[in-house]
Amino acid sequence: MPIRGKIKWGVNADANNPLSDARLQNLELLVRDLRCGRLPFGWRGNRVFENREGDLPSRVGEYYKEFYMGTSAESGALRVVLGAGSEVYVTGNHYRDFIQVLHLPFP
User: Fold this and answer.
1) What is the pTM of this model?
2) What is the pLDDT of residues 14-53, one digit of tens each?
3) Given Cys at both, which of 6, 19, 78, 85 links 100, Cβ 3.0 to 4.6 Å?
4) Dist. CA 93–CA 96, nearest whole Å
């Protein structure tokens, strides 16, 4: 399934939006830590996201890295996928809907 939408950082999130998840309250800090190789408490991953279903724009090689809360098998696991070109994608329903976060400030 393709990216459901794009959200500019700072826009109020509704209840169906994974950005309303309290674990993403400081998304800009989380992304900074993940890009630096630091996994905050409860986060797992830092593995290649292969984009087998074509949910994200097609890129070659190991372009995307995946991070998640919970176990990788949980269907509702919160996931953040980071592109090597600074892209940030979030899904709260195990890849069914990705949202691209635009204009995320870096602290």
Assistant:
1) 0.81
2) 555 667 778 888 899 999 999 999 999 989 999 999 998 8
3) 6
4) 6
